């Protein structure tokens, strides 16, 4: 009883002291795009050096945190996540197996704040701790974590990208594995890539930004690839490649990345963007010291090649050209002839060729049937002797890993929406699988009464959209069940079945988790992606609107019980669904979302996204960007759902002012009297905070806010 009184007092205290800050300062700017005038009322919020802007964001963050922390039930979600984590003695991720059999991997135990790097000489060896980011800087208030790592061929040296506070601008360190010592040389402003070790095993390439300011356009557009030799001063590192080196081979919306293909004796230059169709130039590795290299175009974007591998001087490429469900073809690596390439794995008109890996014995590949089931197949390098490999269990998703075409080793990981992942090693000689886990095997009895339904919903134009429903068995269609709509719909990325204990907590609380496989994603092949891109982007949010209407019409729920949530480019999925049909949703949560697409290319990550969303420099694409802009589509006097808009101040991908502008406008125009909150996290980047505690808090914020707004009795504030 005493605890209840204390909790009530704390709750009342928070609600009485947390006052909604003033609305954002506005300084409207008018732009004319091909005859269309756009008024951007909060353009001033883009100035992140303006004290008034920064103070407003900070005040909103403080108020939002006070509100979220006053929601009963939030701490119980955090406690549950901690309890679930404690069941697993260790969690292994980012496993790398070298040719010599050494294992490098990240491991997290329940007591760890962040993951640590370990090494084994083989699968049965005793592990050795290589690097602990928690002790990297003594008595530091910053949170350091491992972003990427790369061991050299021998495995006696490992380069580690150390991130700070969830950001992506890293510092690279080199660890002597045998001595377990950090070498003196440290490299700052590392972007995107791990170290690429060269043939001498003592030198490597790395990618470095010109500017360390993540809000500076040059921090992404102007990257330098340099070469470092161990034992030398960083200041003497040789510039290998830069934007200036490209000599007209790179567009303004592409990022200059370069490296080396050691196995095939080639240097590589890759103009990067979000376009999944590769564009790659190569040069002879003998030219590594030449200032001007003879770059030869190996792959162009019109070949629609997503990935490739080389075996016996033959290039095997995975393409969507004339094959929207993908196929695998082969041509000469040194003199490619794509028009006359040999087809190795033909397109399946009724299923999607999903992933490919190689071993010494041949090619293993997975095929996904309508998002419901994935099967494993084998073929030799000529495309003959195709056969299905029967997996230990029926699989919704199959992940594969091998050590390349010199070894027989193949591992598969099977997963499903309500089935924890299981890893097996395949013995091709015996055609047998053996369970092989590095992570602790955990049971989740609280999820055993869940079930999955895979359905299709007719969208606005008659197209059938897949939707995965996860709920407790025996669900009654009484129209009162809270439903959380989750989706993405960009870049051709698929929402494949995976076991996510955080998301399953929504179901544990009695709700339905509805994963809408909307257009713009890749669930049904390349055409599905193209039908939710640029001018066809409205299909993304119209598909989830159709899914929402279906769930209401079929008696699962009603508009006072619906929540919609996504992150990043999924901000379009959320933002435009609620701006087009605000009447359908009780609550919306766009996390670090792309909310102001018209201004997107004015951010460091914007130009690289032109391939997916478009540019304001072209009339047809400008029209599409205006249409998908959630901020600009907010209307005066409309009754919008409750919103929790989140942003990471250290986010280089969706700059903080995009969500902030959306939240500012929502606060101004919303007449529903429902809360419109903005949470700016000053210790997080695009992928959230660096620690487990941060990730638990983030999902607890999302679910407690949503459950509050859909009327769940455990989450109703007393005041």
TrEMBL record:
<dbReference type="GO" id="GO:0005829">
    <property type="term" value="C:cytosol"/>
</dbReference>
<dbReference type="GO" id="GO:0004252">
    <property type="term" value="F:serine-type endopeptidase activity"/>
</dbReference>
<keyword id="KW-0645">Protease</keyword>
<keyword id="KW-0378">Hydrolase</keyword>
<dbReference type="Pfam" id="PF00326">
    <property type="entry name" value="Peptidase_S9"/>
</dbReference>
<keyword id="KW-0720">Serine protease</keyword>
<keyword id="KW-0732">Signal</keyword>
<dbReference type="InterPro" id="IPR029058">
    <property type="entry name" value="AB_hydrolase_fold"/>
</dbReference>
<dbReference type="InterPro" id="IPR051167">
    <property type="entry name" value="Prolyl_oligopep/macrocyclase"/>
</dbReference>
<feature type="domain" description="Peptidase S9 prolyl oligopeptidase catalytic">
    <location>
        <begin position="498"/>
        <end position="711"/>
    </location>
</feature>
<dbReference type="GO" id="GO:0070012">
    <property type="term" value="F:oligopeptidase activity"/>
</dbReference>
<dbReference type="InterPro" id="IPR023302">
    <property type="entry name" value="Pept_S9A_N"/>
</dbReference>
<protein>
    <recommendedName>
        <fullName>prolyl oligopeptidase</fullName>
        <ecNumber>3.4.21.26</ecNumber>
    </recommendedName>
</protein>
<feature type="domain" description="Peptidase S9A N-terminal">
    <location>
        <begin position="26"/>
        <end position="432"/>
    </location>
</feature>
<dbReference type="Pfam" id="PF02897">
    <property type="entry name" value="Peptidase_S9_N"/>
</dbReference>
<dbReference type="InterPro" id="IPR001375">
    <property type="entry name" value="Peptidase_S9_cat"/>
</dbReference>
<dbReference type="GO" id="GO:0006508">
    <property type="term" value="P:proteolysis"/>
</dbReference>
<feature type="signal peptide">
    <location>
        <begin position="1"/>
        <end position="18"/>
    </location>
</feature>
<dbReference type="InterPro" id="IPR002470">
    <property type="entry name" value="Peptidase_S9A"/>
</dbReference>
């Amino acid at each position: 009883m005493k605890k209840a009184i204390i909790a009530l007092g704390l709750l009342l205290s928070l609600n009485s002291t947390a006052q909604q800050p003033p609305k954002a300062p506005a300084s409207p700017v008018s732009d004319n795009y091909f005859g269309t005038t756009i008024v951007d009322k909060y353009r001033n919020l883009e100035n992140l050096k303006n004290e008034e802007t920064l103070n407003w964001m900070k005040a909103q963050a403080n108020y939002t945190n006070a509100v979220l922390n006053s929601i009963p039930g939030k701490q119980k979600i955090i406690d549950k996540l901690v309890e679930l984590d404690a069941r697993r003695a260790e969690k292994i991720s980012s496993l790398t197996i070298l040719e010599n059999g050494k294992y490098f991997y990240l491991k997290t135990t329940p007591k760890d704040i962040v993951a640590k790097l370990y090494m084994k000489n083989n699968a049965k060896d005793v592990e050795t701790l290589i690097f602990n980011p928690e002790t990297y800087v003594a008595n530091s208030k910053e949170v350091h974590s491992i972003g990427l790592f790369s061991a050299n061929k021998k495995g006696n040296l490992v380069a580690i990208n150390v991130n700070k506070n969830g950001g992506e601008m890293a510092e690279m360190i080199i660890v002597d594995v045998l001595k377990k010592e950090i070498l003196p040389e440290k490299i700052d402003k590392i972007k995107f890539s791990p170290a690429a070790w060269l043939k001498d095993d003592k030198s490597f390439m790395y990618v470095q930004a010109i500017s360390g300011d993540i809000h500076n356009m040059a921090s992404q557009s102007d990257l330098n690839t340099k070469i470092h030799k161990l034992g030398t001063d960083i200041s003497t590192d040789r510039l290998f490649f830069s934007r200036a080196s490209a000599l007209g081979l790179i567009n303004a919306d592409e990022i200059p990345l370069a490296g080396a293909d050691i196995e095939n004796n080639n240097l590589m230059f890759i103009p990067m963007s979000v376009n999944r169709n590769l564009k790659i130039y190569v040069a002879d590795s003998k030219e590594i010291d030449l200032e001007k290299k003879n770059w030869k175009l190996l792959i162009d974007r019109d070949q629609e090649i997503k990935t490739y591998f080389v075996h016996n001087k033959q290039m095997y490429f995975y393409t969507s050209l004339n094959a929207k469900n993908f196929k695998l073809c082969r041509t000469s690596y040194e003199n490619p002839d794509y028009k006359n390439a040999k087809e190795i794995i033909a397109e399946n008109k009724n299923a999607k060729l999903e992933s490919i890996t190689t071993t010494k014995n041949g090619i293993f590949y997975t095929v996904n049937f309508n998002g419901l089931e994935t099967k494993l197949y084998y073929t030799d390098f000529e495309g003959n002797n195709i056969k299905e490999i029967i997996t230990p269990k029926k699989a919704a998703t199959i992940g594969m890993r091998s050590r390349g075409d010199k070894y027989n080793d193949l591992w598969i990981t099977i997963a499903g929406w309500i089935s924890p992942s299981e890893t097996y090693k395949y013995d091709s000689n015996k055609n047998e699988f053996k369970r092989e886990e590095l992570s602790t095997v955990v049971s989740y009895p609280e999820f055993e009464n869940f079930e999955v339904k895979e359905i299709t919903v007719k969208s606005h134009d008659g197209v059938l959209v897949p939707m995965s429903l996860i709920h407790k068995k025996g669900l009654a269609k009484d129209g009162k069940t809270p439903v959380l709509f989750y989706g993405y719909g960009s870049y051709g990325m698929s929402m494949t079945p995976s076991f996510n204990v955080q998301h399953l907590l929504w179901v544990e609380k009695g709700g339905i988790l509805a994963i809408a496989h909307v257009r713009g994603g890749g669930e049904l092949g390349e055409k599905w992606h193209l039908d939710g891109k640029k001018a066809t982007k409205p299909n993304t949010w119209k598909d989830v609107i159709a899914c929402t209407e279906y769930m209401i019409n079929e008696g699962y729920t009603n508009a006072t019980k619906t929540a919609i949530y996504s992150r990043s480019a999924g901000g379009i999925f959320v933002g435009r669904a609620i701006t087009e049909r605000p009447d359908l949703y009780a609550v919306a949560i766009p996390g670090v979302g792309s909310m102001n697409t018209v201004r997107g290319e004015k951010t460091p990550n914007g130009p690289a996204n032109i391939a997916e969303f478009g540019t304001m420099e072209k009339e047809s694409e400008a029209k599409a960007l205006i249409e998908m802009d959630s901020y600009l589509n907010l209307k005066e006097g409309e009754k919008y759902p409750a919103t929790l808009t989140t942003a990471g101040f250290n986010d280089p991908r969706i700059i903080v002012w995009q969500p902030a502008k959306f939240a500012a406008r929502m606060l101004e125009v919303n007449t529903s009297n429902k809360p419109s909150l903005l949470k700016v996290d000053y210790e997080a980047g695009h992928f959230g905070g660096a620690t487990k505690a941060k990730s638990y808090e983030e999902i607890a914020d999302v679910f407690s806010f949503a459950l509050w707004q859909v009327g769940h009795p455990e989450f109703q504030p007393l005041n």
